[in-house]
Design a protein that fits this description.
The protein has 43 helices and 2 strands. It is an all-alpha fold and 850 residues long. Among the domains are: 64 residues, no CATH class; 167 residues, no CATH class; 131 residues. The longest helix has 25 residues. This is Complex I intermediate-associated protein 84, mitochondrial.
């Protein structure tokens, strides 16, 4: 091959970023011949890269086999169907073609049934997506009742689906939002006519959502406006049984765990509304709810009496508390007599009685109503009460001054009362007894008392159970005893946890370990791994703390995996808390720039809903870090976003222009300016043009900057005072800018614009900026003589700063010392700085803003 041809081929491949291969390699030709035996022969162009078909490689030492495999990124963990609904939302926002309706319907079914199976609440972000998807599906078939119940044709509109949806919506979420209320209202209006069961379910869910949102008055108005149909006898008994069960599960109260079966479908909702009024201390709402219950024929019960006891407690009315306690005791004992043959009913009444006694005695201890507390104890101790009541009495005794040893002797008294009682009903102190006493010690912030009660249990052969260790972790963490809490946690690993009651305190332990400087990273990760193995959800604070911990160790993949696992299961408020922690990490100037950029990249990927304001702050922070390229990337990400609350506004453009001006980065300025030219959502205003003048002046393009001044003059809005200062600054830096400054000044004088000393300072600095120092000094003298200007240090400092070069500044200094010695002396007191060329600038604020 001729050398010239070889050189041309080499340079072509270098420019095309292709490998350089010598086609005359005998070994490669042999392999090529062997590989092509029996196969079709295809002609190949002369300049085709042979390496694409048969790349060069080592045939003996395959060193690549020892490389560490590349880590795969973990996919986002979302509830079934959520990703498809998110896709629908984005496409609708972009006004693009949505996914096929069958896929949206399947996503809705998958999501709702998974929520029903897991018995978890629907968060606000999920409720918004469900409402959007449901409306999208119903638009194709119409919203008439005929289309809603064609179960055989379209299962998305089946009764089973709507029943599961209303059940899920009725469960209390962590945060009630407008999306929950809108979805409940939409379902209520959609299903109020037709299927009686669906009408009842949607109305019940709507009322519950109002109560969860803290508006029980709305729920009461809704209940009064609805004529609830009674279930027909032809309906499936299994369906009604399931509905009652789900209503009981969805109504979570501090007073009872299971509803009394009733033929009136409104009674459970009224009880829920009543409890909401009680928690809000709304006595008028309680009275109205009780009146409605009486009108519907709902007689008094221990449920309503318990609510009235709690209402008296929150109002601090001891007399009413005593009276309602008597009513509750009477009704509860009557219910116990009726439930003797029903173990579940008996357990429910006993549990409610225990809760009321606990609340009443704790309130008496807190406010000092000891007489009422002693009366309650006497009432419950008239007969040999069940063991849970004994536990409440022990807590009362410890709270009113009994020592640990005295409480131990009371255990003996309880156990001595077992004579004549079947062994299955014996009252013996157990871990539940100790746990109640430990909870009392925690409420009194007395960890020493808590430890003594645990020691008392061990002396009597009562070993701590899982709840005891959880409580032990709580009070040890409350006094920052991290080592003690960690020891309790290790003991907890050997316990059989039936639920997730330990998750809150374990999350607190993880946060404490992460913040502690005495515990290493492996200790934290051991606890984290345990929760991960259990597939438990981390608290938002835990997630944000671990994310920052990994970021500080440059473990970017771990941060992404952590957020992809948990972030999509939080409510919008919880996601915001995590997002804000990461944004604060980026904005912290102590954070290295590389880590700040990694954190921003993660935020952009996981928290797509990040609004405009924090994105603008992130952009400005990268400008402060002297990284205009990163700042422009942040701006472009906003520019290409589809959300209306994220795309740039005029203020965003102004911030970007000012950032490029501070760094004098012309390339970044032109990128942002070109984006502005293409942005049809932005109407150019005077402040925006002011920012352009500032930016181009700072980037040594003052003549182009003055072109925007002409645009301002020609616009309907016209210039502002800031525009005048900014334009004169551009004249100060522009060649022959003194001529433009004189033109502007003459127009201002003709229009009788009020010209203060700062405006005079900008004008004379513009004259001096082009070397016309003598004219600038004469202008100051004439204005001073005509009493148009009071010469002050700012005017002299501006004139001095505008003079170019060391010699011209010396001329200004000599003139000022002679004409205005006192003002010059005041200026010198402010101090000055000097650059490499010897040019000085006094410490006066000459900055301008759009």
């Amino acid at each position: 091959m001729p050398s010239s041809h070889l050189t041309r081929q080499v340079f072509r491949r270098l420019l095309a970023n292709e490998p350089i291969v010598y086609r005359g390699c005998l070994r490669r030709q042999a392999y090529s011949s062997v590989a092509s035996v029996g196969g079709p022969q295809h002609r190949r162009r002369q300049n085709d890269s042979f390496a694409i078909r048969m790349p060069q490689r080592r045939t003996f030492f395959n060193l690549g086999m020892f490389r560490k495999p590349r880590r795969e990124r973990k996919e986002a963990d979302m509830d079934p169907g959520i990703e498809k609904m998110m896709e629908l939302e984005k496409l609708q926002r972009m006004r693009a073609r949505p996914p096929p309706q069958e896929e949206i319907k399947k996503a809705l079914r998958d999501f709702i049934y998974s929520k029903q199976d897991s018995r978890t609440a629907m968060e606000d972000t999920q409720a918004r997506l469900v409402l959007l998807s449901l409306k999208h599906c119903l638009e194709s078939v119409g919203e008439g009742s005929e289309a809603l119940h064609q179960e055989s044709q379209d299962p998305v509109f089946a009764t089973k689906f709507y029943k599961a949806l209303t059940y899920t919506l009725g469960r209390p979420p962590r945060q009630v939002s407008d999306a929950h209320l809108e979805l409940a209202r939409y379902l209520f209006e959609l299903l109020r006519i037709g299927n009686a069961v669906l009408a009842r379910g949607t109305a019940t869910a709507y009322c519950k959502i109002w109560c969860y949102a803290g508006s029980p008055n709305k729920a009461l108005e809704l209940l009064q406006s609805i004529d609830f149909p009674m279930p027909k006898a032809s309906m499936s008994s299994e369906l009604d049984a399931d509905e009652h069960q789900e209503e009981g599960e969805a109504i979570e109260s501090s007073m009872n765990q299971q509803q009394t079966p009733t033929s009136d479908p409104v009674t459970p909702v009224l009880l829920h509304t009543l409890r909401t009024f009680v928690s809000m201390r709304d006595s008028s709402g309680v009275e109205r709810t009780l009146a409605i219950m009486q009108d519907r024929g709902v007689g008094e019960s221990y449920h309503t009496a318990a609510c009235l006891v709690e209402m008296a407690i929150v109002q601090g009315d001891a007399f009413r508390a005593q009276r309602h306690w008597k009513d509750f005791t009477r009704l509860a004992f009557a219910e116990l007599d009726q439930s003797r043959n029903s173990p579940s009913g008996l357990s429910s009444v006993s549990s409610n009685q225990k809760q009321v006694i606990d609340k009443l005695l704790q309130w008496c201890m807190k406010v000092g109503h000891l007489d009422l507390g002693h009366e309650v104890v006497r009432d419950v101790m008239q007969d040999n009460p069940p063991k849970p009541i004994w536990d409440a009495v022990f807590v009362w005794a410890a709270g009113t001054g009994k020592g640990v040893d005295e409480v131990g002797r009371m255990f003996d008294v309880m156990e001595s009362s077992n004579d004549g009682i079947p062994p299955d009903d014996w009252r013996n102190a157990d871990a539940a007894t100790i746990n109640g006493l430990v909870e009392l010690a925690i409420s009194k912030d007395d960890p020493y008392m808590a430890e003594r009660f645990i020691a008392l249990g061990r002396e009597r052969g009562i070993e701590p159970d899982a709840k005891t260790l959880v409580l032990q972790m709580e009070y040890r963490l409350s006094v920052n005893d991290i080592d003690g809490a960690l020891t309790a946690y290790k003991n907890l690993q050997y316990m059989d946890l039936s639920g997730d009651e330990d998750l809150p305190v374990v999350n607190r332990l993880i946060v404490a370990l992460s913040s502690s400087k005495r515990h290493d990273f492996d200790t934290v990760m051991n606890v984290v791994a345990d929760l991960s193995d259990r597939q438990a959800r981390f608290d938002p604070l835990t997630t944000s703390t671990l994310a920052l911990l990994h970021l500080n160790r440059d473990e970017i993949h771990d941060v992404i995996d952590l957020l992809n696992t948990h972030a999509y299961h939080y409510s919008s408020t919880e996601r915001t808390s995590i997002r804000n922690a990461l944004v604060s990490y980026c904005l912290d100037m102590e954070t290295p720039t590389s880590r700040a950029w990694d954190a921003y990249s993660i935020i952009r990927d996981v928290f797509d809903e990040l609004p405009r304001e924090p994105r603008t702050e992130l952009m400005s922070s990268f400008f402060r870090r002297q990284r205009p390229d990163m700042a422009v990337h942040v701006f472009n990400h906003m520019r290409t976003h589809s959300r209306a609350d994220t795309i740039p506004t005029i203020d965003t453009y102004i911030s970007a222009f000012l950032g490029t001006a501070r760094l004098r980065d012309l390339e970044s300025l032109e990128v942002v300016h070109n984006q502005l030219k293409l942005d049809f959502n932005i109407n150019i205003t005077t402040p925006l043009r002011n920012a352009l003048i500032i930016a181009y002046t700072a980037c040594s393009r003052p003549r182009k900057a003055l072109g925007f001044w002409d645009d301002i003059v020609a616009s309907r809005e016209g210039p502002s005072y800031n525009s005048l200062h900014i334009a004169l600054r551009a004249c100060e830096k522009s060649p022959f800018g003194d001529l433009k400054a004189k033109e502007i000044w003459e127009k201002l004088r003709k229009m009788n614009v009020d010209l203060d000393s700062t405006m005079w300072a900008s004008y004379v600095a513009a004259l001096a900026g082009n070397g016309n120092v003598a004219a600038a000094c004469k202008t100051v003298e004439d204005a001073d003589a005509d009493r148009e200007l009071d010469v002050d240090p700012f005017v002299l400092g501006s004139l001095f700063a505008g003079a170019p070069g060391f010699d011209r500044q010396g001329d200004v200094e000599a003139w000022a010392r002679a004409k205005y010695p006192r003002e010059w002396a005041d200026l010198e007191k402010l101090g000055c700085e000097e650059d490499e060329a010897g040019t000085r600038a006094f410490y006066i604020d000459r900055s301008v803003t759009p």
